[in-house]
Amino acid sequence: DATPTDAALLLASFSLPFVLVTPLTGVWVDRWSPRWILFLGFALPATAIPIALLATSIAWLAVSILVVGIAAAAIDPARSSLTGLLVDEGLLVQANGMLSTAFHGALLIGTLGGGLLIESRGADAVYTLSTVVAIVGLPGILLVPDVRQHGERPHMTFRDLAEGVGISWRHP
Question: Would the pTM of this model clear 0.85, i.e. be above it?
Answer without folding.
Answer: no
